[in-house]
Design a protein that fits this description.
10 helices; elongated; 74% helix; 0% strand; 290 residues; mainly alpha; single chain
């Protein structure tokens, strides 16, 4: 079993899974608190539909890429990896900006659907809340699985790690619903976010490397350095670092510079202190027993 790719899958499944699990648990807890627990089934229907669609999208993407011929396969893989890196970067900053208000926004959305009598709108609310995380996860895992295949690793290790991470996320979500503060969520999201920055940087460099092999990028393709004698990327710790962070012992200049610029730039922006935001105000509705 490839521990490196297992770890990347676990981190992705855990981070994305916790976000989705927290959203669902917030909705369920609010329904229970307002005497509307009878609508739980609709939330589970919306959640299950989002999970099924996300899994289907991921499977279609993976099968489609595997059926392409060179250089179309390299171009598709490179595009998918860079797109995955872009999506996860957007997700990190979106979550950083909205985490403080997401609970109130979800409560307001539930209120509107209960007051309007659109109880099946609750299923759609759960679906839309989970599908964003699900599609992001499917795209990210598909790119990681392709990276594993290219590095002579086991793509199934990535998927297994993701399943383990998602199961842990479900446990955390249940703990949140029951009111148990299992972990410090602010610390959890911050440090898993940092880990995902490095993983996304690896996908970015892998994607650029694919474009070089496809002949699309012809500038900066010379080898920047070669430290294979010290830490080769095709065995031992180097292979683990390659799986986890996209490490290469002999990178091209363009891939190395892109990786470095991404790491430094995104980490500086992601870890900078946030300005306090004014508390959002909303109209309270009487929804108990609606």
């Amino acid at each position: 079993m490839d521990v490196g790719f297992l770890t990347t899958g676990l981190l992705t499944g855990l981070r994305e899974g916790v976000e989705a699990a927290l959203i669902v648990s917030i909705i369920l807890a609010y329904l229970a608190k307002t005497g509307n627990a009878r609508h739980f089934g609709k939330i589970w229907i919306g959640t299950a539909a989002a999970v099924a669609l996300s899994a289907g999208v991921g499977l279609i993407l993976f099968v489609t890429i595997g059926g392409l011929k060179e250089p179309a396969e390299q171009i598709f893989e490179g595009t998918a990896m860079i797109l995955a890196a872009a999506v996860v970067t957007w997700m990190l900053f979106w979550m950083r900006r909205t985490a403080a208000n997401v609970k109130g926004e979800l409560h307001a959305s539930v209120d509107r659907r209960l007051v309007e009598g659109s109880v099946w709108g609750l299923a759609f609310l759960a679906f839309t809340a989970v599908i964003r995380e699900g599609i992001e996860t499917a795209l990210f895992l598909m790119a990681q699985a392709q990276a594993a295949t290219q590095a002579d690793g086991n793509a199934l290790a990535t998927l297994l790690g993701a399943v383990i991470g998602l199961l842990i996320a479900v446990v955390i979500g249940f703990g949140f619903y029951r009111g148990a503060r299992v972990i410090n969520l602010r610390t959890f999201f911050q440090w898993t976010g940092v880990a995902l920055v490095f993983i996304a940087a690896g996908l970015l460099s892998h994607g650029i490397h694919e474009f070089i092999e496809a002949g699309i990028i012809g500038v900066g393709t010379a080898t920047a350095f070669d430290i294979s004698a010290v830490l080769a990327h095709d065995g031992g710790i180097g292979q683990w670092l390659r799986a986890l962070f996209g490490y290469s012992s002999s990178p091209e200049w363009v891939t190395f510079i892109s990786w470095l610029v991404y790491i430094v730039g995104v980490l500086v922006l992601y870890l900078r202190p946030m300005k306090p935001q004014p508390a959002a105000t909303r109209v309270e509705h009487k929804v108990a027993g609606a």
